[in-house]
Amino acid sequence: MIKIENKKILARQIEEIIKEAGQFILHHKIEKVMEKGNASNVVTNIDIQCQNLIIEKCKKVLPDSVFLAEEEGQQQISEQFTWVIDPIDATTNYVYDFHHSCVSIGLYYQRKGLIGVVYNPYLDECFVGIDGIGSFCNGKAIHVSHHPFHEALIMIGTSPYDKHLAEITFAIIKELFIEARDIRRSGSAALDLCYLACGRIDAFYEQNLQPWDYGAGKIIIENTGGKIKALVENAFDELKPTGVICSNGQCQERLAEIVLKYSR
Length: 264
Description:
Layout: H1 4-27, E1 33-35, E2 42-44, H2 45-61, E3 66-69, E4 81-89, H3 91-95, E5 102-109, E6 112-120, E7 125-130, E8 134-137, E9 140-141, E10 153-156, H4 166-179, E11 182-184, H5 189-197, E12 203-209, H6 211-222, E13 227-230, H7 235-238, E14 242-247, H8 252-263
């Protein structure tokens, strides 16, 4: 059991690290863009340099911890402390200068989410979730919305790295669009989860996410009263790839009914 005060200290340390990483992204130039399998999945020299910076800083905070990170094979899970890191979530947005990308850091202890931090350097918004304490944006407490499903604004992801999921994904999106208020797509799953946590949207669906996509956002949602479900059994406990559905709670039942009709 980790004491509340120790959680708060760790959260402040992670905030400092993530803000430094965010400023690194803003103030360094992309020199190289490489494909990872297809044109939808790209990585830049800044992704790699930013991840190296984060790992170096996190090792100083918890020297015996391990890292599950997107780039360059840093993919270990420990029964003690595991950092789950996406140095730039929405790299494609970043390459296009779309100004909607973020840094995501989740800290897990015994495979349970302890602290999640997501930082959008373009808006200088830092979302923090601390297990058993709550979730915050720039220090102010955040909470999910209360809209029912028919009034829901639903954020969706299209799993662009997994084009074979297109038929299922867009069949689900069509039903969501018809039944709910409207849909949106931002390109950053980590920020989508934060936007759910603070009431800017009411629900979220994507057919496949990596653990570094959801690792921090999941913790932030869980500490606002939101509901989040993995489409792959035990994926959250094992930090594995999975589809994700989440909502303000009021939308969860109908959201799950629609998604699971296609995803079983």
